[in-house]
Amino acid sequence: MQPETKNRTFQIPAKLYRIGELVRYTPFSRQTIHNYTIMGLIREAQWTEGGHRLYDESVFERLSKIIELKKTKTLWEIRQILSKRGQGKSA
C-alpha cells in the first residue's frame, strides 16, 4: 500500500549554475562572466561554502539580452538599461 500523496506539493529546489557551466552553455568566457558580475550586469544567486558563485536560471535570459543589446549599445548603456528594468523587482 502506497502512502497517500493526494493534495501534496513538493518544493523542488531551483537549479544553480557555476561559472564553468555558464561558459559551457553560453558563448561567454569565464573572464567575461566574472567581469559582467563585477559590473552588475548579472548577479549571483548564492555562494558556495568554498566561495564559488552560483547563478540561477534567470542568468541565461539576462545573458541573451546582453548579446542582443551589444549589437547597438555599449556595456555602460546596457548596464543602465538593465538596471532600469530591475527596479521594482526583487533580486
* Rg: 17 Å
Helix content: 40-55%
Q: Based on CA inertia axes, which overall geometry fits?
A: globular
Strand content: under 5%
Number of helices: 4
Provide a descriptive summary of the structure in words.
The structure is a single chain. This protein is mostly helical and 91 residues long. It has one domain: Multidrug-efflux Transporter Regulator, Chain: A, Domain 2 (Orthogonal Bundle), CATH 1.10.1660. 45% of the residues lie in helices and 4% in strands. It has 4 helices and 2 strands. The protein has a two-stranded antiparallel sheet. The chain starts with 18 loop residues before the first helix and ends in a 5-residue tail after the last helix.
Structural topology:
Blueprint: H1 19-25, H2 30-39, E1 46-47, E2 53-54, H3 58-69, H4 75-86
Antiparallel strand pairs: 1-2
Brief descriptors of the model:
two-stranded antiparallel ribbon, Multidrug-efflux Transporter Regulator, Chain: A, Domain 2, globular, 4% strand, 2 strands, mainly alpha, 91 residues
Task: Describe the structure in brief.
The protein has 91 residues and is mainly alpha-helical. The chain is built from four helices and two strands; from the N terminus they run H-H-E-E-H-H.
